[in-house]
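Can anyone check this?
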Amino acid sequence: MKTGLREIVFMVMLLGIPVGAWWFVFRPANEHQADMCKQIEAKQEKLRHLNELTGKVGDLEKEIASLERSIKFFESKLPAEKEIDKVLHQTWRLAEENHLVTKSIRSGKATENAAGLYATGEQAIQPIVIQLEGKFEGFYNFLQALERQPRIMRIGLMNIKKPETGPEGTVQVSFRMSVFFERDQNQKSEGT
């Protein structure tokens, strides 16, 4: 077989077809496929991130529902403003049950929570100054009975001293009790 120019051109053309096909068809298709894989990977990453966020939103909804139940529970412990006299009566009754002599019970002006915890203005604090006298054991039992009350109260500024005259074990006590309560509807709208 004689190889001439014609055969060489034919061989070059035969070899050029696969090289041309690779250069003009397969190489761009491979680049396009690589781009598509990168885009798919980026979108899958976004989906994973969105799934994580969606899971957190579900957890937040559960947390919000739990906190709303807690708020309702504590609001149920708050007396209405018109029930403050009942709280005073219960306090007086507890002192009598524990054989304490009530020297005075004075209520101050109801104030907004000074700590700023109730920005809505729906809750307020009624300070009550109480002076008692009696046996220390009776006062101790009185404090325990106050603690068991279903109301939210805080005792502060307590002063306990022994009276100048009287039997051993007798104390004179004065303290400030803060009763948290829910304001009336009219005052709520004025406070907001």
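Reply from J.R.: I decoded it. The chain has a mean pLDDT of 80.
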